[in-house]
Predict the structure of Peroxin-7.
Amino acid sequence: CGTLLILDHNESGLRIFRSFDWTDALFDVTWSENNEHVLVTCSGDGSLQLWDTAGAAGPLQVYKEHTQEVYSVDWSQTRGEQLVVSGSWDQTVKLWDPTVGRSLCTFKGHESIIYSTIWSPHIPGCFASASGDQTLRIWDVKTTGVRIVVPAHQAEILSCDWCKYNENLLVTGAVDCSLRGWDLRNVRQPVFELLGHTYAIRRVKFSPFYASVLASCSYDFTVRFWNFSKPNPLLETVEHHTEFTCGLDLSLQSPTQVADCAWDETIKIYDPVCLTMPA
């Protein structure tokens, strides 16, 4: 079974604000961009769930179309559209309008499990997906087809993210322990490669505040902070988990605040030293 925990963070620490149960494992969660009480989760039974933290104990809606585990879900960030994208082990990506009870369309092309689906923060109707087929793909909702296919690693790609300051720049993290940056105007070679993790990279996130800073977490139990514009890009390694580190995000409100979580069943919110010093 899976649980969605809504946590409140204040001066006295973390407290559980609300919790919701589901009948299968929950793999990802995304906040609504137009209602602070609404979230969407995705689960191992192939469904997406729409929750209201201010209301009912159960989900407001359940969308069940994927035929295998749904591993990734993301709510669009550009104004003028409220769309959710989901990526599944069934090798498809589906597009949803949360007010409509069924998917708007299905994107096919990946040849293996899809681990990550992320909307562009810059380009309306554009999202990226990362897969076990070793490719990063860029899609356009309007054409329902793939725009760009990047053979980004010679290994499964578990995570990708868009730079918040450059609409052409993405980063991928893979089972080969490397992070690679990609400029969509020329994808023949990565624009940077970051090495240091010793096991698969589970999640990577660009900073919302610093154009060349990103964070990654790995099955090597660490979270690492990088500045890809520096000759020595590794800024800091944080080792405060005793198991695989699997979740990671950077605060949109605070330039220094980071949240992560691991298989050791703990969630940590902290301010790494490298982000509290001037960049």
